[in-house]
Specification:
The chain is globular, with a radius of gyration of 22 Å. By secondary structure, the protein is of the alpha/beta class.
Length: about 500
C-alpha cells in the first residue's frame, strides 16, 4: 500500500469511502425466515423494533430448489431453514406492513432469484413504491452453488443466462438494486482458506462480468450494482486483512482487465456474516464471544453490511432472545467502542500490511490458475475448485483432531453436560397450513392466464428474449415458484454433478 493512499482512494485498500463509518454506519441486518410468511413477518417486525436497519430474508430449501411446498420432495423441509414462499400471495404476506421504499432488503436466493425478485418488485408496486428507487440485494450467485453449496437447478450455462437477463432487466427497472452478491461466504463454510475465499469469489465475479459483456452489456452499466458477501472467521487480524486484499485485487481487475471507467465499478462493496461453521453446540454461550470478535474484524475490515450469528444456531433456529443479543453485539461495536470514529483504524499496521500482501499474492496465484484452465466454468467442470476447497477443509479438520488448532469447548476446555439454553421449536403444523394455502391460491387464480404466461416463458427460454419480463408476467398471474421453475426445466433441463 502506498503511504499516500487514503480511504476512498484507488485501489481502496483502506476502504471505499473517505469517511467510512464517520458519515454512515454499516447496515445492520439479521438473517431471518422460518415457517410461513406470517411467522417470518412477525420476526421481521420484532427485529425492526429492536434496531435493525435492513431486512435479510432466508428462504426454505424447497423455495431455493424451485419446488412448491406440496411437492413430494418438499415433505419435511417446508419452512425449516427459511420461510416458505410459493407465490406472490406469500410474498405479500411476508412483507405486509413493511414499506419497501423505506428499507433495504437482502434476499439470499440463487437458482430461483429471478422469481423471488419478481415477487418483491410486484409487492412494491402494489404498495405504491417507485420501484426505480428500491434498494437492496438479491444474491443470484449460482456459480458458488456448483462449487460449495448445491442448491442449483439448471446447468451452468443457461443459469448464467438467467443471471445476465436479470442484470439487463434490473438495470432499467430497478437501477438502485444490487443485482448480484458474489458469495465467498459459502466457499469458506465449505472449508476454504482465507486466500481461497478471496480468489474463488473473484474468479466467479470475473465469470459473471464476462458473461454480461458477452450478452452485450457495458461494464459500467452493471458493475456498480455488483456486491459481494464474505465470511468472517476466527483469525481476527487475517480476516480484517482479507477484506483489504479483496478490495485491492478487485479494483485492479476491474480497471486493468475490464477497462472500467466509472469509479463505482472499481469499488468492492460487501456484506459480511460471522462464520456459522465456527459455532459450537458445546458451551453455546461461548459463541457470543466468537461472534463479537468476528463482527469487530468485519467492521475493522470495512464492511458495508453485517449479520451477526446467534449463539444457538449450532442447535436450532435462533430464539428471539438470541437474535436480540446478536444484534446488540453490532450496536455495541457501533455506538460504544469508538471504532467507527476512525476511517481506517488498522491503517499503518506493518503486520496488517504483510497479511494483506500475503493473501493478495496467494489469491492472485489461484486466479491465474483458474484463468489457465479456461475460466471459472471450466474450472468447476473439471472439479479443480471443489478439490482445492475439499483439500483445505480436510487439512483444517486434521489440525483440530490433532489438537494443533484449538476449538474451545470441543477439543480443549471441555465441560460436562449438554447445552443449557432454551432452543427454538418450529410448529410442525405450519407445513400443512402452507400446503393448504398454496392449494387455495391455485384454486382462486385464472388458470388459463397462468397456462398462457407459462407457455410464453418457455417460448422465450427456447429463443433469445430476456426472460425477466416473462417471469414477472407469470408471477403477476400467481404462477408458483415450482411452476415457473418447471417451465424453465422443460427447456434447460436439470444439472447433475458428474
Amino acid at each position: 500500500m502506498s503511504p499516500d493512499e487514503h480511504p476512498g482512494d484507488f485501489p481502496y485498500t483502506r476502504g471505499i469511502y473517505r469517511d467510512m463509518y464517520r458519515s454512515r454506519l454499516w447496515t445492520m441486518r439479521q438473517y431471518a425466515g422460518f415457517g410461513t410468511a406470517e411467522e417470518s413477518n412477525k420476526r421481521y417486525k420484532y427485529l425492526l423494533s429492536q434496531g435493525i436497519t435492513g431486512l435479510s430474508v432466508a428462504f426454505d430449501l424447497p423455495t431455493q430448489m424451485g419446488l412448491d411446498s406440496d411437492h413430494p420432495l418438499a415433505a419435511g423441509e417446508v419452512g425449516r431453514v427459511g420461510v416458505a414462499i410459493c407465490s406472490l400471495a406469500d410474498m405479500e404476506r411476508l412483507l405486509d406492513g413493511i414499506r419497501l421504499d423505506r428499507i433495504t432488503t437482502s434476499m439470499t436466493i440463487n437458482s430461483t432469484a429471478a422469481i423471488l425478485l419478481a415477487f418483491y418488485v410486484l409487492v412494491a408496486r402494489r404498495q405504491g413504491a417507485d420501484v426505480r428507487k428500491l434498494s437492496g440485494t438479491i444474491q443470484n450467485d449460482i456459480l458458488k452453488e456448483y462449487i460449495a453449496r448445491g442448491t442449483y437447478i439448471y446447468p451452468p450455462r443457461p443459469a448464467m443466462r438467467i443471471i445476465t437477463d436479470l442484470f439487463a432487466w434490473a438495470g432499467e427497472q430497478t437501477p438502485e438494486w444490487n443485482t448480484i452478491s458474489v458469495s465467498g461466504y459459502h466457499i469458506r463454510e465449505a472449508g476454504s482458506t482465507a486466500a481461497q475465499e478471496v480468489a474463488f469469489t473473484l474468479t466467479n465475479a470475473i465469470a459473471y462480468i464476462e458473461a454480461a459483456i458477452q450478452a452485450g452489456l457495458d461494464v459500467d452499466d452493471f458493475a456498480p450494482r455488483i456486491s459481494f458477501f464474505f465470511n468472517v472467521h476466527n483469525n481476527f487480524l487475517e480476516e480484517a486483512a482479507k477484506f483489504r486484499a479483496a478490495r485491492r485485487l478487485y479494483a485492479r481487475i476491474m480497471k486493468e482487465r475490464f477497462r472500467a471507467r466509472n469509479p463505482r465499478s472499481l469499488m468492492l462493496r460487501f456484506h459480511a456474516q460471522t462464520a456459522g461453521s465456527t459455532l459450537t453446540a458445546q458451551q453455546p454461550d461461548v459463541n457470543l464471544v466468537r461472534v463479537a470478535l468476528q463482527a469487530m474484524a468485519a467492521v475493522l475490515g470495512g464492511a458495508q453490511s453485517l449479520h451477526t450469528n446467534s449463539r444457538d444456531e449450532a442447535l436450532a433456529l435462533p430464539t428471539e432472545e438470541s437474535v436480540r443479543l446478536a444484534l446488540r453485539t453490532q450496536q455495541i461495536i457501533a455506538y460504544e467502542t469508538g471504532i467507527p470514529s476512525v476511517a481506517d483504524p488498522l491503517g499503518g499496521s506493518r503486520w496488517i500490511e504483510e497479511l494483506t500482501e500475503r493473501i493478495e499474492r496467494e489469491a492472485l496465484s489461484y486466479i491465474d490458475r483458474v484463468d489457465a484452465l479456461g475460466g471459472t466454468l471450466k474450472a468447476i467442470e473439471s472439479g479443480y475448485i471443489q478439490n482445492e476447497i475439499q483439500n483445505a477443509a480436510y487439512q483444517y479438520q486434521r489440525s483440530i483432531e490433532s489438537g494443533d488448532t484449538v476449538v474451545t469447548g470441543v477439543n480443549r476446555f471441555r465441560t460436562d453436560g449438554g447445552p443449557s439454553i432454551p432452543t427454538f421449536q418450529l410448529d410442525p403444523s405450519l407445513e400443512q397450513h402452507q400446503v393448504r394455502r398454496l392449494r387455495d391460491v391455485r384454486a382462486a387464480r385464472n388458470a388459463r392466464l397462468v397456462a398462457d404466461r407459462l407457455k410464453d416463458l418457455e417460448a422465450a427460454a427456447r429463443g433469445t428474449r430476456n426472460l425477466m419480463p416473462h417471469i414477472v408476467g407469470c408471477a403477476e398471474a400467481y404462477a408458483t415458484v415450482g411452476e415457473i421453475s418447471d417451465g424453465l426445466r422443460n427447456v434447460f433441463g436439470e444439472y447433475r454433478e458428474q
